[in-house]
Design goal:
The protein is mainly α. About 75% of the residues lie in helices and about 0% in strands. The longest helix has about 80 residues.
């Protein structure tokens, strides 16, 4: 008889409190599910952020490694230019200019005349403009294939075409300034027109 009474009491309890217990149970289950879903989404976002940060760290490390390698290369080989104003060739830059026969390339009368006209056509009205236009003209020659004959030399020396363009541009600048009776020291000052 005790079991029947307990069962009856339980049924009566549920019937009496069902309107409270059922919504409470549904709310509890809903809350737990919401928490699980939210936590899973949060965990996924954190994981995605971690992957992105790891990728950035790897990229940053690669950039650092390249910078260190570039600095080491400059330290070992030496700079092509001297760090002074105006920019001038270092001993290494002068050696590359000579060994590559870039001097003969620029000094050829017909070619120099053409290069001079190209620099003048860029409205180079002062020594600084001549410097920038000279490098620009050398880049144009590269694009036109005029500097392809230097590729074997550059490859054997472990140099880039931009290295040669730098030294040739400075040499061309100095030669044009000399022809115009300008001084390379005038790079920072306004000078008369090339006309």
């Amino acid at each position: 008889m005790g079991t029947v009474t307990t069962t009856a009491q339980t049924v009566t309890f549920w019937a009496e409190y069902a309107h409270i217990i059922i919504p409470l149970a549904i709310s509890l289950i809903g809350g737990v599910l919401t928490y699980v879903v939210t936590f899973t989404q949060y965990k996924e976002r954190v994981s995605n952020l971690k992957e992105r940060v790891d990728g950035m760290e790897k990229s940053l490390q690669e950039t650092r490694d390249m910078a260190v390698a570039a600095k080491a290369l400059v330290d070992v080989k030496g700079s092509l230019t001297e760090a002074k104003s105006p920019i001038s060739l270092s001993e290494r830059g002068s050696r590359i200019l000579t060994e590559s026969h870039a001097i003969e390339f620029i000094d050829d009368n017909e070619r120099f005349s053409s290069l001079l006209k190209r620099v003048v056509s860029k409205n180079s009205s002062n020594a600084y403009d001549v410097q920038e236009s000279s490098k620009e003209v050398m880049n144009e020659l590269k694009e036109e294939g005029e500097l392809d004959n230097f590729k074997d030399y550059l490859f054997k020396q472990g140099l880039l075409m931009d290295d040669l363009i730098t030294v040739m541009g400075i040499y061309l600048r100095d030669k044009i300034l000399s022809v115009k009776n300008w001084n390379a020291e005038d790079i920072d000052r306004q000078t008369p027109s090339l006309d």
